[in-house]
Amino acid sequence: MDTIGFAIVTGTSSGIGSVLATKLAAQGYDVLSIVRRQSPSTESGRIRHLALDLTDSDAIPRVVSEVECAGRPVDLLVNNAGVQYSHCVTDLLDEDRSAALRTEIALNLEVPIRLTWSLIDRIARPGGAIVNVTSLTALHPKTSAPVHSATKAGLKSFTRALRLQVEPMGVYVMEAVPPLVDTAMTTGRGKGKISP
Question: How far from each other are the two terminal CA atoms of the chain, in whole angstroms?
């Protein structure tokens, strides 16, 4: 099968991202899979894993460097990585809670914005596409996850504004809002989940 494009997918260690990377590769995409931890069992000729913590200061420059080394335009960027923690504002804001807040805001909102910004020159052409994975919590905030809800609402807003900015270039910008999916993040939460 001929290669039909070059895709970058974040959050591919498990769940939706892992399945998406595999499906894209099966359709003929070469995939740069951004994983937090290496998962060689899903490695294939079309999937290259890059293990890093996207919240680290050098992470996005490393992704950009990988793309530059590939020497190809990016046909599809999927900002899928995300995390959800339970928070209650009446709890003590200690060092651990502050770290969790920073991570949640960075991974769910700052990283997709910075990654898109850093790669837009490789995507900005007719047919290029960006998909931002948000959540139903962007519209219906979850009481136990106020920070997650806020970051996903922010990503929803960024997606809408970005779509208007890059539309004249022929770039597609989409928001994916999955239903409740059976992943590590949703363990013990809700019923009627669908598989990734």
Answer: 25
The count of structural domains within the chain is 1
Chain CA centroid to CA 54, Å:
10
Distance separating alpha carbons of residues 138 and 51, to the nearest angstrom: 28
Residue 91, amino acid:
D
Beta bridge partners of 181: 194
- Give residues with Cβ within 8 angstroms of 53, minimum separation 6: 36, 59
Task: Give dist(CA 77, CA 97) in Å, integer.
Answer: 31
Helix H segments across the chain? 15-26, 59-70, 95-105, 111-123, 146-166
Write down the pTM of the prediction. 0.89
Residue 99 falls within a domain, yes or no?
Answer: yes
Name the token pair of 135.
């959540």
| Integer Cα distance of 18 and 182 in angstroms | 13
Range of the domain at 74: 5-186
Each residue's pLDDT, cut to its tens digit, for the chain (196 residues) gives: 567 899 999 999 988 999 999 999 999 999 999 998 765 454 568 999 999 999 999 999 999 999 999 999 999 999 999 998 988 888 878 888 889 999 999 999 999 999 999 999 999 999 999 999 999 888 998 898 999 999 999 999 999 999 999 999 999 999 999 887 666 655 556 666 567 7
CATH of the domain at 79: 3.40.50.720
In a domain, 193, yes or no: no
